[in-house]
Design a protein that fits this description.
Length: 165
């Protein structure tokens, strides 16, 4: 499974070097021949930590910030999501974010704003979480998978209908 690395591309992050950071991440991915995908997302609003680089892990996204392009090689050398001076731990557990209930900006910083696939996945998840029974079942299922339970099934690709009518 391809791991995603998120680097914001909004104006605030760009103003403090996010483009150079994204270029450095891309260069490390290519030079090390890693199965990683660079995703340009929006900022989560933690402007004092921008550019905030996030590494996708099974437990959630690990954040690094504020990151300079010159920090990227050291982050890769240490091992992605490994201890590093800029490692902030799980982004969702950063106190500023942990206390928030995001409504208007629920997807900001989470998804690639140019990806229809990300938008549809988030739209479906938010819909399912809107029902307390569904939310409980989803959380129980996720906890079971995190604990090593579950059964792997081969899936059949679903053909999506075009949104154009």
């Amino acid at each position: 499974m391809t791991t995603r690395i998120y680097v914001p591309c909004d104006a605030a992050a760009l103003s403090v070097g996010a483009e150079a950071v994204a270029n450095a991440v891309h260069a490390e991915i290519v030079s090390r021949k890693l199965d990683l995908k660079l995703v340009r997302n929006g900022s989560r609003g933690l402007l004092w930590l921008e550019p905030l680089v996030e590494i996708e892990t099974p437990k959630g996204r690990i954040g690094y910030g504020p990151v300079k392009a010159s920090d990227i090689k050291g982050i890769f050398d240490a091992g992605l999501a490994a201890p590093h001076a800029l490692n902030l731990g799980l982004v969702d557990e950063i106190p500023y974010l942990a206390k928030q209930q995001r409504l208007t900006f629920a997807r900001c910083g989470i998804t690639d704003p140019l990806s229809l696939e990300d938008y549809e996945a988030m739209e479906t998840t938010l819909y399912l979480l809107g029902n307390p029974t569904n939310a409980k079942l989803l959380r129980e299922g996720i906890a079971e998978l995190d604990a090593g339970g579950g059964v792997k099934h081969n899936t059949v690709p679903v053909r999506r209908r075009s949104r154009k009518q």
